[in-house]
Queue: 3 jobs
Job 1
Amino acid sequence: MINLDTHEWDFSKGEMYAINWLECHGFDVTIRKRYITKDIIEVSKDGLVYIFHLPCGDSKIKYNQIMRQFQSS
């Protein structure tokens, strides 16, 4: 992961769950931009690059569903 220390506010538990999930599944994660309502992250694996919009919030269940949907696509 790149640039975790340069952000103005801390990540929520849900955001950390999603980021850790991506890293555990072999993705390289780069935070591009953080907004109050969403994070824009660049996710890469095996030479493919995805731009991923991660909504902000604290619901781990919601993030679990988002990560399952990302995995299926």
Job 2
Amino acid sequence: MDYNEEIDNNLKKIESILQFTKGEKLIMATDSYSRLTTWNDKITNPKGKKLEEFVASNHLHVINEDNERTTFQSKRG
């Protein structure tokens, strides 16, 4: 997902993919630039809240394991 783009636009794209693959098994990976305590982050930001609602309303499953090693770390998070 593009950091500067509104998450709603990205969620519409994902929704199109879900409709196209309806009934098929699908694994999707993304860097959403959203923060969410569900994913073991310390905070939930507005993008994270929208993504969390999207995941729940589409009956999707997030697989993100809590780990001491992060894939990215800076002063911002």
Job 3
Amino acid sequence: MKKSCLFILVLIITVGSVCAQSRDNTVLQIDNAVKTISRDIHRKLTDERADRVAVINQFIFGGSLPPLGSYWANNLKDELANMPNKSYILLSEGVTGADVIISGEIAEIADIIRIYTRLIRQNDRAILASFSSDIERNATTTAMLASSRSGGSAYVPIDAYEPDSWENPVPFEIGVEENVTAINRSIHAEGDEDFFLIVPTSNSRLVMETTGNTDTYMEFYDANTRQLLAENDDGGEDTNARIFYNVEAGKRYIAKVRGYDETTTGLYSFQVYVLPLNANASTWENPIQYSIETDRNAQDVDGIIFGGDTDFFLLIPNSNGRLVMETTGEIDTYMEFYDANTRQLLAEDDDGGAGNNAQIVYNVEAGKRYIAKIRGYSDETTGLYAFRAYILPVRAGASSWDNPIRYTIDNRQNSQVVNRTIFDRIDADFFLIIPSRSGRLLMETTGNIDTYMEFYDADTKEMLTSDDDSGEDTNALITYVVESRKRYIAKVRGYGDTTGQYGFRATYIP
């Protein structure tokens, strides 16, 4: 009865999807090995003095007692108890009074599990006999090893695909949809790395990802040159890794999976599937044609970014005006704005919109062709977004990069204040400053609204510095050492949705 109950317990703790026949075969293999060892032990004890007293003790793995060790010890006890013509006494438990202790240890060796069984003389700890039994390592036997090691760290079994390496990667048959069959593997020890060989049969977008509760890190290589093509930490669900990559038919690739750091171990699953390359994908030569509206209720065009994707929108304004282009959604987007004919970059933005969305405002000309290029902030960025563009009439006196307000620096302390108005959240003023001498320049805003100032090299449009509230109350203030006759731009806008009147001034300071 004890043996049957323990067998049920082993089946309950077994993890993984293993058929009943496989379990039965594994347990039968263990039972047969126990019978063989029992006969050897019985023969050894019988050859010794008739008054021998023996006891079955523990079978240890990695410093702890796994279910496989308990199962082995209990079966061994049952077999020896039922041996006929015993000339020795077998204690049911405890080592007190025993002459011989029967115990051992379990080890993983390549694709087998080896169980060492030893007969140890109690009084001097001498080994009277030693036996070894090899059991197939599969999902059932590795699950029977699952237990807590001393020190509290969880035992992680070696998976059935070890040992693998650069020279001996595990081939993976690529699926064509997300529910492709995964390979179950483990990061079983510190520094363990798993290698997967991937050979696409067609040009396609490849998706590689891990699933499970282990924090994984993935690297993707050209298998022939070992050039690193992509890498990812948490691009998948929770702390799982995910990589998107456009691959070539017949080319050999390697995906390498490890724990996030040297100490990370645990179970995970790996899968690879392809997404067809989008026949309608936009390019410089084949952009998405967008019809510009004249108000903020412009049409949204939905898009999806897979890692490394880029969308191109063709914009041809019907009138001169301030063109507002922006993305909406939950992913972090990056926008670039070009002259479509020359491909000159006119403006770019990361988080100028709400949240992590991009927004660009640019004074455009009627009938001219422009391109708005949208991508994820990084190659790992993936998700849905929407793009829209609308045009607002150019206000009289409005400034821009191309038509800035010329500001003349007064050498006196009370320099001239230029009063301006911020009309909406996309409004900004541009002040062109050409210092007559090198020195330390102070630029600040005055008034009651919350302003934000950016300071640029006017020729390269490189931002040199920026400020929010360093001035009085919520005003902006910047000091910068400038060069004589060099061209600079001070750009002032409201913070967030701030609108209203403010003043701008600049002066030399000691």
